[in-house]
Amino acid sequence: MGRRAKYLTADARRAAKRAQAQAYRQKQRGQGTRSSINKAYYSKHRAATEVSTLLGIPVPRELVDRAGTTYRASFSVNSEGPTLGLNKAPYEFERPTVSIGLQEFREEPEDPWDSEEATLGAYQYTEIILSAHDRRDKWLAHNGDPMELEGEVLTEVEARVKAWILLWEDVTSGAGDGDLKMKRVALNWGAKVVTMLAEEWQEWVTDRAAWCRALKSGDLPWQRMMRETMSLYTKEVSDV
Questions:
Q1: What is the domain partition of the chain in residue ranges?
Q2: How many CB atoms within 10 Å of residue 159?
Q3: How confident is the model at residue 47 (pLDDT cuts 50, 70, 90)?
């Protein structure tokens, strides 16, 4: 009885701490995040006229719309390349510092899957899969409190949303330093990355067993992205 009582007390204590932490995040960090993001969003060059949310974080509707689009990723590219700042915090746009042969694209190629956007898209596509594999291994091995991972995920989602809004404002204001084609690629794939991360986390934290089943059946967001990209390629090639 004594040992059972201790277990119940410890369990209740963990539940109370979890509830307190969640309430604090929603009230304090949530308010701060919403305030800073909304200031950027409702600025002179705001991204859209509607607002959606990712894990409770306000995001421009434009971000969600872009995330739902399937983009070309050249299958002629077989190596890693510049990810335009999307692979590391603070996830802000970075122009490639190394030559990637983009000077060849003075004219658009006949095949859009060999275009500059598709070439850059291939690098983002590859990074998404590599990051997803790392996340899969980490989440599969995690046997502790989900809150230990929640902070990491929310911090990344918040940072990615903020960086996306800043880039969108730069592009729509017309005051940027050029590189519009690269920036559009970063906006498109940046929207997909943060949306898929939020969606996958929601699946994992809600029902880990269901997440594992989705992983095995190839139905996680990044796995669906792979199928959708191949389907688009097959359709467009067959239409030629």
A1: 2-239
A2: 15
A3: very low
